[in-house]
Specification:
This protein is mainly α. It has helices at about 10-20, 40-45, 50-70, 80-90, 95-100, 105-115, 120-125, 175-180, 185-200, 210-225, 230, 235-240, 245-250, 255-265, 275-290, 290-305, 315-325, 335-345, 350-360, 360-385, 390-405, 425-445, 490-505, 530-540, 550-565, 580-590, 595-600, 605-610, and strands spanning about 145-155, 160-165, 240-245, 270-275, 405-410, 465, 470-475. The strands form two sheets. Strands 1-2-4-3 form a four-stranded mixed sheet. A hairpin with a 4-residue loop joins strand 6 (about 465) and strand 7. The longest helix is centred in the middle third of the chain and has 23 residues, at about 360-385.
């Protein structure tokens, strides 16, 4: 058994992969360590933990090189390199940003100053509405705009798109920052008021302290009507269909007709889903009750704060100074990191196309897609034989797996950025135009059939997500590199890494959110109460950081590899059997001790490493979680 080797590397591909993985597989563990006592330490250098962060750092460096080269190399107008390079260069042009001062905000400042009544407040809210939330798939429910919009499949009629309206409008992370009476929160609120006053002062406004207090008081009233995070995560509670005419009766305050017209919502779109109706009612009431002057100060502060990163350094510094005071703050990143993140956010597919050409060839996509099909088949067979799952749920689960869209690396249909204007000397304008371009892209979906092959993450993302309302999985090319995938590597290892990763994402289609949508994306819980209780009971026996989907991923990937390997499953390579290579690769890919808790529930792991009673990880057969 050769645990001293990360993986068997062969030829040029092996050398490239070994270099790429050097940060992860840098040291050799004690070969005398028994796998059944500490498999994490047996397979890894115990002093290191986690593989995703090193992959993210490596990918960031790769992307920076791509975008910086694009910024330095002339390219045709409208091409991916030109768009990405110009966007990045404009963000990095600190001297130009300083020279322009607050002038990029002149038009918006004039627009806010012209607001005289509540009709104009409604018009401004509509004009600044953006597609910046996703409550169904990505669990992104925070926007600094007063309300946020998303366009997604209708939970009740999932073949059609419908607009969703969500609560927003807070300058701090959530309502607790405004309402919690703990001394630490009181101190943060005081710091926030000072920050708002600083923005007003930097922008040349008079009486900044008094006006800042009014803005923070207004936000506190907004926070008081907000739904909690748990309430916002309740899918059934969020599925509220309002017709356009209902808003005037159910949420009186703003002129909703003016707001929707200013937002560009097609007149033919008669229905919206209001995700947090209590919050929308409360915000509407505040539009009616609070002074127009306070709303104008509120809009101006949020306009500055929203664009602080592309305004003179004093504004960015003030923003970082406050954000650093919040729990979990990571501090300001280097300018190039922020420029790269902004470019990625605005031009995800343009940067993604450049990335995959260099780092994720089509043959990698095809190979991983083949693994994904085999893992899906293996998981479906396991589900078919589950005695604890009701017959109807087993049928529904297999139908859902069969219909599930698996996106590997990058989408089959890329985004087209024709019409988006990006220049090298207008960082603020680039950001504004990109947000409006995305908003119009989302609105253009209305009236069309839902496209379940659409990607919701950028291809270069170091991420794998299950999208419950779309019944789809997106796994970004940024994640599909060593240690999770290496072309030409021993199949046992690739199945133990990327195969298990795919399996766990597929199994999320039966998780707490996934099982609330059927194969077609309709919102309804197709599990019995007994089914749900069984899965939850099994999940509770696993430690924090691990869940039933993780276990399903290992088991289905192992099944798929056995079917592929056939009679060669027992072949020994560099002293390790196929199952040993599978499990060692799995542990080395994740580098998390929680994965030991998954493996100790897999019978084949015991056989592969001769794990016996008395060893620390040993579980008697009757004690192992056998949910799958």
């Amino acid at each position: 058994m050769n645990a001293a080797v990360c993986w068997p590397w062969r030829g040029a591909a092996g050398i490239a992969g070994l270099l790429a993985c050097a940060a992860i597989c840098a040291q050799v563990p004690d070969p005398a360590l028994r796998p059944g006592d500490d498999f994490f330490a047996f397979a890894n250098d115990a002093a290191r933990s986690g593989s995703v962060d090193p992959i993210a750092g490596r990918t960031e460096v790769q992307l920076a090189a791509i975008v910086q080269k694009a910024a330095q190399t002339p390219s045709p107008a409208g091409s991916d390199p030109r768009l990405a390079g110009d966007y990045y260069a404009a963000f990095m042009d600190e001297d130009g940003i300083e020279a322009r001062g607050l002038h990029p905000l002149d038009a918006l400042r004039t627009r806010i100053a012209a607001i005289q009544d509540r009709h104009e407040i409604a018009r401004y809210i509509g004009e600044t509405l953006r597609a910046d939330v996703d409550a169904l798939n990505l669990n992104q429910v925070v926007t600094d705009n007063l309300v946020g919009l998303m366009v997604a499949a209708d939970p009740d009629a999932p073949d059609r798109y419908v607009p969703f309206l969500l609560q927003g409008g807070l300058g701090m992370p959530d309502r607790s920052y405004y309402l919690d009476s703990a001394p630490a929160m009181v101190a943060i609120r005081a710091g926030y008021a000072q920050y708002v006053a600083a923005l007003l002062r930097l922008s040349g406004e008079t009486d900044p302290d008094t006006r800042a207090r009014r803005v923070v008081d207004l936000e506190q009233r907004i926070a008081a009507v907000h739904s909690t995070s748990d309430q916002s995560g309740d899918l059934k509670a969020g599925d509220n269909h309002w017709r356009r005419d209902d808003f005037r009766k159910l949420a009186p305050g703003p002129d909703w007709t003016v707001l929707f017209e200013a937002a560009g919502l097609p007149f033919a779109q008669h229905e919206l889903v209001v995700w947090q109706p209590g919050a929308i009612r409360g915000i509407a009431a505040l539009v009616r009750s609070e002074p127009v002057a306070t709303w104008k100060d509120y809009f101006w502060v949020h306009a500055i704060e929203h664009s602080a990163q592309v305004l003179p350094k004093a504004f960015a510094d003030a923003t970082f100074a406050f954000r650093d005071s919040l729990p979990g703050a990571a501090g300001p990143h280097a300018r190039w990191k922020r420029a790269l993140a902004a470019t990625n956010a605005a031009l995800g597919d343009a940067v993604g196309r450049l990335y995959v050409v260099q780092y994720f060839p089509p043959e990698n996509k095809a190979a991983i897609e083949a693994i994904a099909r085999e893992v899906r088949d293996a998981l479906s067979l396991r589900v078919a034989g589950l005695p604890w799952l009701s017959p109807q749920a087993r049928t529904e689960a297999r139908a859902k797996l069969a219909a599930l869209q698996i996106g590997i690396g990058y989408p089959d249909q890329w985004r087209d950025y024709a019409g988006l204007v990006v220049t090298r000397n207008d960082a603020f304008g680039n950001a504004e135009r990109a947000a409006l371009f995305e908003y119009r892209h989302q609105l253009a979906k209305l009236g069309h059939r839902v496209d379940r092959t659409e990607w919701l993450i950028a291809p270069q993302a170091v991420s794998a997500v299950y999208l419950p309302a779309m019944n789809a999985v997106n796994i970004g090319a940024g994640l599909l590199q060593p240690p999770f995938y290496l072309a030409g590597r021993d199949p046992a290892q690739n199945y133990g890494t990327v195969g298990a990763l795919i399996g766990q994402e597929l199994a999320r289609s039966f998780g707490d959110r996934g099982r609330r949508f059927d194969a077609g994306g309709r919102l309804h819980d197709w599990w019995t109460d007994a089914d749900t209780a069984q899965l939850r009971a099994a999940s509770e026996r696993l430690p924090a950081g691990a869940d039933a989907a993780d276990l399903a991923g290992v088991l289905s990937a192992l099944d798929a590899w056995h079917r592929r390997a056939g009679a060669h499953a027992a072949d020994v390579v560099d002293g390790d059997s196929g199952e040993q290579r599978f499990f060692i690769a799995y542990a080395q890919a994740w580098r998390m001790r929680e994965r030991d808790a998954i493996l100790r529930n897999v019978d084949a792991w015991y056989d592969a490493f001769d794990v016996r009673p008395g060893q620390a990880l040993y579980l008697a057969p009757a004690e192992r979680v056998r949910i799958w």
